[in-house]
Amino acid sequence: QVQLQESGPGLVKPSQTLSLTCTVSGGSISTDYYYWNWIRQPPGKGLEWIGAIDYRGSSYYSSSLKSRASISGDNAKNTVYLQMNSLKPEDTAVYYCNYYTYWGQGTQVTVSS
Protein backbone atom coordinates (compact mmCIF):
# COMPACT_ATOMS: atom_id res chain seq x y z
CA GLN A 1 0.00 0.00 0.00
CA VAL A 2 1.30 3.41 -0.98
CA GLN A 3 1.78 5.95 1.79
CA LEU A 4 2.36 9.63 1.19
CA GLN A 5 3.66 12.14 3.72
CA GLU A 6 3.69 15.86 2.98
CA SER A 7 5.92 18.30 4.82
CA GLY A 8 6.51 21.99 4.54
CA PRO A 9 6.99 25.29 6.37
CA GLY A 10 3.42 26.03 7.43
CA LEU A 11 3.72 29.82 7.24
CA VAL A 12 5.17 31.71 4.29
CA LYS A 13 5.31 35.43 3.62
CA PRO A 14 3.78 36.95 0.48
CA SER A 15 6.15 37.01 -2.53
CA GLN A 16 8.27 34.21 -1.05
CA THR A 17 8.76 30.74 -2.47
CA LEU A 18 7.02 27.69 -1.04
CA SER A 19 8.83 24.36 -0.95
CA LEU A 20 6.90 21.20 -0.09
CA THR A 21 8.05 17.62 0.10
CA CYS A 22 6.06 14.42 -0.44
CA THR A 23 7.84 11.35 0.88
CA VAL A 24 6.62 8.14 -0.69
CA SER A 25 6.68 4.65 0.80
CA GLY A 26 5.19 1.42 -0.49
CA GLY A 27 5.61 2.58 -4.08
CA SER A 28 8.23 3.92 -6.45
CA ILE A 29 8.07 7.29 -8.17
CA SER A 30 10.44 6.04 -10.87
CA THR A 31 8.54 2.89 -11.87
CA ASP A 32 4.89 3.11 -10.81
CA TYR A 33 2.76 4.04 -13.78
CA TYR A 34 0.27 6.64 -12.53
CA TYR A 35 0.88 10.31 -11.92
CA TRP A 36 2.14 11.74 -8.67
CA ASN A 37 -0.05 14.77 -8.10
CA TRP A 38 -0.03 17.91 -6.01
CA ILE A 39 -3.52 19.16 -5.15
CA ARG A 40 -4.64 21.93 -2.84
CA GLN A 41 -7.81 23.00 -1.08
CA PRO A 42 -8.23 26.64 -0.03
CA PRO A 43 -10.43 27.28 3.01
CA GLY A 44 -14.10 26.91 2.12
CA LYS A 45 -13.35 25.89 -1.49
CA GLY A 46 -12.97 22.73 -3.53
CA LEU A 47 -9.92 20.79 -4.56
CA GLU A 48 -7.60 22.37 -7.11
CA TRP A 49 -5.10 20.35 -9.12
CA ILE A 50 -1.70 22.03 -9.20
CA GLY A 51 0.28 19.58 -11.29
CA ALA A 52 1.91 16.18 -11.48
CA ILE A 53 5.03 14.26 -12.32
CA ASP A 54 5.14 10.86 -13.95
CA TYR A 55 7.49 7.89 -13.58
CA ARG A 56 9.69 9.22 -16.40
CA GLY A 57 10.17 12.53 -14.59
CA SER A 58 7.95 14.53 -16.96
CA SER A 59 5.91 17.21 -15.22
CA TYR A 60 2.50 18.67 -16.01
CA TYR A 61 0.81 21.78 -14.65
CA SER A 62 -2.52 23.51 -14.28
CA SER A 63 -2.70 26.33 -16.78
CA SER A 64 -3.48 28.80 -14.01
CA LEU A 65 -0.41 27.87 -11.94
CA LYS A 66 2.18 26.75 -14.49
CA SER A 67 3.99 30.09 -14.42
CA ARG A 68 4.63 29.78 -10.66
CA ALA A 69 4.79 26.05 -9.91
CA SER A 70 7.58 23.53 -10.38
CA ILE A 71 7.33 19.82 -9.60
CA SER A 72 10.33 17.54 -9.44
CA GLY A 73 11.31 14.16 -8.08
CA ASP A 74 14.30 12.50 -6.47
CA ASN A 75 14.31 8.83 -7.39
CA ALA A 76 16.98 7.94 -4.84
CA LYS A 77 14.93 9.45 -2.03
CA ASN A 78 11.60 8.36 -3.54
CA THR A 79 10.36 11.90 -2.95
CA VAL A 80 8.34 14.39 -4.96
CA TYR A 81 8.75 18.13 -4.50
CA LEU A 82 6.59 21.17 -5.17
CA GLN A 83 7.99 24.66 -5.43
CA MET A 84 5.74 27.63 -5.95
CA ASN A 85 7.06 31.15 -6.21
CA SER A 86 5.56 34.63 -5.79
CA LEU A 87 3.15 33.41 -3.16
CA LYS A 88 -0.05 35.36 -2.47
CA PRO A 89 -2.51 35.20 0.42
CA GLU A 90 -4.93 33.36 -1.89
CA ASP A 91 -2.41 30.50 -2.08
CA THR A 92 -3.34 29.70 1.52
CA ALA A 93 -4.61 26.13 1.46
CA VAL A 94 -4.11 22.58 2.58
CA TYR A 95 -1.69 21.01 0.12
CA TYR A 96 -2.00 17.32 -0.66
CA CYS A 97 0.16 14.76 -2.36
CA ASN A 98 -1.84 12.17 -4.31
CA TYR A 99 -1.17 9.00 -6.25
CA TYR A 100 -4.06 7.11 -7.85
CA THR A 101 -6.43 6.53 -4.89
CA TYR A 102 -3.84 7.28 -2.25
CA TRP A 103 -3.64 10.60 -0.41
CA GLY A 104 -1.34 12.11 2.13
CA GLN A 105 -2.83 13.73 5.21
CA GLY A 106 -2.15 17.18 3.79
CA THR A 107 -0.07 20.06 5.05
CA GLN A 108 -1.46 23.49 5.89
CA VAL A 109 0.22 26.41 4.17
CA THR A 110 -0.68 29.93 5.25
CA VAL A 111 0.55 32.91 3.28
CA SER A 112 0.62 35.94 5.52
CA SER A 113 2.95 38.72 6.55
Largest sheet: 7 strands, mixed
Radius of gyration: 13 Å
So what's the overall shape? Answer: globular
Q: Residue share in helices?
A: under 10%
Task: Please provide the count of β strands.
Answer: 11
- What are the segments in which pLDDT stays under 50 over at least 5 consecutive residues? none
SSE pattern = EEEEEEEEEEE
The amount of beta strand, in percent, is over 45%
Number of helices: 0
Q: N-to-C terminal Cα separation, in Å? A: 39 Å
What structural category do the secondary elements indicate?
A: mainly beta
Average pLDDT confidence is 96
Could you characterize the architecture of this molecule?
The protein is mainly β and 113 residues long. It has strands at 3-7, 11-12, 18-25, 36-41, 48-53, 59-61, 69-74, 79-84, 93-99, 102-103, 107-111. Strands 2, 4, 5, 6, 9, 10 and 11 form a seven-stranded mixed sheet that branches. Strands 1-3-8-7 form a four-stranded antiparallel sheet, with no helix packed on it. The N and C termini lie far apart (39 Å).
